[in-house]
Specification:
There is one protein chain. The protein is an all-alpha fold. The protein has one domain. About 75% of the residues lie in helices and about 0% in strands. The chain is built from seven helices and no strands. The protein has helices spanning about 1-10, 10-35, 40-45, 50-80, 85-100, 105-110, 125-150. The radius of gyration is 18 Å and the shape is elongated.
Amino acid sequence: MISEAIRLLKTKKLMLQGLFFFAFFMVIYTMIDGFNLSYQAMTQQYGSYLVATNISLNIAMASLSALLLNLSTAMATLKGKDSKGSNLSFASVLFGILTYGCTPCVIAFFASVGIAFSVIALPLAGLPYKLISLLLIVIGILWTLREIKFGQCKVKYSN
């Protein structure tokens, strides 16, 4: 079943969808970085290595998120059901927004529920939290691949 999913990933429709998802997630991850600490300020405070690491992680996360959503689409086409793992790419975006995202928004949100702290104080401009987001996406891909390989089809066959 995985070979069929890979075949579907090579179709024009899913390649265009993947490109759209990649661009969408790149915009989101770049905006989250900018809300946390601009790349110029990050370079001045931590050095250009951290900016290069963040941009590389943004590209990896956007690529993997696009792959995850395309795998979920392929699974829905093949089996008639969506993968639960596809939600983890969106969970990683929400995780990013709530941890190393727009500091004034996050502080206002958490202050409204009684939690007050400064997100800007996170180490290396939130890099550990970006790595956790990447881990969530990888778990989502592995989960989806497992569902494609071992999951049951929606239609039961009888002899």
